[in-house]
Amino acid sequence: MLAIACAGCAGGWHAFPWISARLALPAAAETREALPPPDPETDYLASIQPILARHCFDCHSEGIRKGGVEFDAHRDLDTLFADRDLWAKVRDQIDFHLMPPPDDPQPTPEERQALVSWIDNRIFWVDPANPDPGVVTMRRLNRAEYHNTIRDLLGVEIDTPTLLPPDDSGYGFDNIGDVLTVSAAHVERYHSAAATALDAALVAGSASHTRLIPPRPHGQDVRAWATGVLENFALRAFRRPPETDEIERYLGRVDAAIERGEEPALGLRDAFEVMLVSPWFLFRGELSGKDPIDDQVDKVLIDEFALASRLSYFLWSSMPDDRLLGLAGRGQLRASLDDEIARMLASPKADALVSDFAGQWLQLRDVPLLAPDLKRFPDFDAVLATDMRRETEELIKLVLRENLPVHTLISADFTFVNERLARHYGIPDVHGDGFRRVALAPERRGILGHASILTLTSYPTRTSPVLRGKYILETILDTPPPPPPQNIPPLESATADAGAASLRAELERHRADPNCSACHALIDPLGFGLESFDATGRFRASDNNLPIDTSGKLLDGTTFAGPAELLDILATGYEDRFLHSITSRMLTYALGRGLTPLDRPAIDAVKTKARENDTRIIPLIRAVIHSVPFQYRRTP
Question: Contacts by 295-302 with C-beta closer than 8 Å and gap 24+?
């Protein structure tokens, strides 16, 4: 369909039949299995199967498959070991203490560690000397990337949300290649968007017009002049040097304009428009780079133009600038990489890391959509929602600007507010619309005390300990609980109008159900620790004239008396889990693909580098960029 839609475009989709096929190919079909170390069966029978028999087989064998897990449903041990989805689920359940259920006999810490280590080192073993960089997926620019690329290429702003369809998301982000589908509607919209953008950029006499189509020097041949203009535009639009035959095809547009008696500039405009609907502009493949001679090597460095694109779309959500392209063209980008990272992070364009990475990781993009019940929360409006989001973004920007440790996001004893938000929090002596730094009480430290997060994790009429606990697990600790069992009645209908005390009591009864106890024992205490904040993030000592109990006990036995102690526990006792969370999410975003257990060496390497630098944010970003998945591609 795509090839037909642009069959008349020089250098268009007809020249890339592999793109449609590549996009349609399931990622699993390209997964290369890593070879496990010898004798996994011996380890299993001697050490692992006895633990599983004591603690798991009663509910997960002989036709019983609670939670979809059954160990003896495989015809032999080889197929059991090959079921990686099963082992990934088992690993998380054991590691996060979700299984066995709390009321059943529990494995010892040594048994849990033995299971997790065996799964990591046998089922998901990766040769540390030859880590797998993963699959490079052709992916189109998402709307934010398209908008920024048009801005930086043409020098104009366009209304991208109106011009292009919304993007799908996967693994928490909208830049994931496997979900960025393309339809005939996309192709049609890209034609319209390209025409709109060029109409705005090529207004006669404008700065953008002069930069894109500079005056022809006196006496220079028209074709030589047009060739130079097209080569410069193609280098920037395609993020790589164009091939000679490509430029010849685009020159045909200039020749056709001259034959019609039109100005050559009109032919250049036609050529620009064709380039802006070319797969080389709309897609990021980064498949370039020379294959290794040694057949035993299964990865290869991407070339420097591909590296420039990965770098710029990671840090800026936009195309490489002239400096990056120049360094890549001279083969000097890798030698200057750390300097370029520092330069790019100091640029205002790095705000894209806040809006596009953090905005999706922390779900800040959803804040404008919040709609608390105005009868219960009459002070809430769209302006306040904007201020809430701005507060969290300002903290993230400070962490980037001052290269602070990543745990500052969950431990900061300060924040940024304007008068409206300060009044919402009850903070005195803040005046005006401008945001300024203020100290915080212990119970409101870090982003978990921000109204943006507290309102995101509430219902319109009341708080939700379940949503808040789930947010902490998934977003802060990268420990997503399993989905709830089927046929469990929703808790919310029974508690929609209940007070805080009855809500807690109802949740306690819910946890008494064996089908619910394991997950809610993990989720609920975290959520109750934040119950002193209402559904719009205001502090409260009571609800419906009833005192609020914010105490809790975590699965590891740690207890806390309220939000201040809970935040202390998360910032200190769970600092490594938070580092793991931000590392895995940042790698996912930087690579544009979901991570697999084979990415564990890369995650570990990034975390190690971060720890060597006090977990400061810029060394972590540098480590992501220097990682094997970012620097290499898998060979065919």
Answer: 297/130, 297/635, 298/32, 298/130, 298/132, 298/634, 298/635, 299/130, 299/131, 299/132, 299/133, 299/628, 299/632, 299/633, 299/634, 299/635, 300/632, 300/633, 300/635, 301/631, 301/632, 302/631, 302/632, 302/633
For Cα atoms 163, 282, 623, give the angle at the middle one, nearest 5 degrees. Answer: 115
As to burial, measured by CB atoms within 10 angstroms (0-12 exposed, 13-18 middle, 19+ buried), residue 88 is middle
Helix orientation angle between 500-512 and 514-528, rounded to the nearest 10 degrees = 150
pLDDT-based confidence at 122, cuts 50/70/90?
Answer: confident
Q: For 139-159, what is each residue's pLDDT tens digit?
A: 899 999 999 999 999 999 999
pLDDT of residue 29: 33
CA distances for 539 relative to 444, 528, 535, 542, angstroms: 9, 14, 10, 9
Ramachandran sector of residue 12 (left: φ over 0; alpha: ψ -120 to 50; beta: rest): beta
Q: What are phi and psi of 16, to 5 degrees?
A: -130, 55
Question: At residue 117, what is the residue type?
Answer: S
- The predicted-structure confidence for 375-422, as pLDDT tens digits, reads as follows 999 999 999 999 999 999 999 999 999 999 999 999 999 999 999 999
pLDDT at 296 over 60: no
DSSP 127: -
Confidence (pLDDT) at 514: 64
- Candidates 148, 181, 150, 155; CA nearest to 276 is 150
pTM of the model: 0.89
SS (H, E, C) 500-567: HHHHHHHHHHHHHCHHHHHHHHHHHHHHHCCCCECCCCCECCEECCEECCCCEECCCCCEECCHHHHH
One-letter amino acid for residue 19 of the chain = I
pLDDT at residue 318, rounded to an integer: 98
Question: Which residues does residue 387 pair with via DSSP β-bridges, in sequence order?
Answer: none
User: Cβ distance 393 to 416 under 8 Å?
Assistant: no
SS3 of 164, please? coil
Whether 457 contacts 468, CB under 8 Å:
yes
DSSP assignment of 572-598, as one string?
HTTHHHHHHHHHHHHHHHHHTS---GG
Work out the number of other CB atoms within 10 angstroms of the CB of residue 482.
16
Report d(CA 601, CA 106) in Å as an integer.
30
Report how far residue 593's alpha carbon sits from residue 179's, in angstroms, rounded to the nearest whole number.
9
> How far is Cα 534 from Cα 539, in angstroms, rounded to an integer?
6
Measured distance CA(455)–CA(371) in Å, rounded: 9
- How many CB atoms sit inside 10 A of residue 24's CB? 8
Pull the structure tokens for residue 94: 């054991």
Q: Closest Cα partner for 566 from 539, 526, 531?
A: 526
Residue 490, pLDDT score: 60
Residue type at position 134: G
The per-residue pLDDT for range 466-494, each reduced to its tens digit, is 999 999 999 999 988 877 766 666 655 44
CB neighbours of residue 166 within 10 Å: 9
What percentage of the chain has pLDDT greater than the value 70?
A: 88
**Residue 40: predicted pLDDT:** 73
Q: Which two tokens stand for residue 219?
A: 């006496």
Phi, psi of 533 (to 5 degrees): -115, 130
For residue 605, what pLDDT is reported?
A: 95
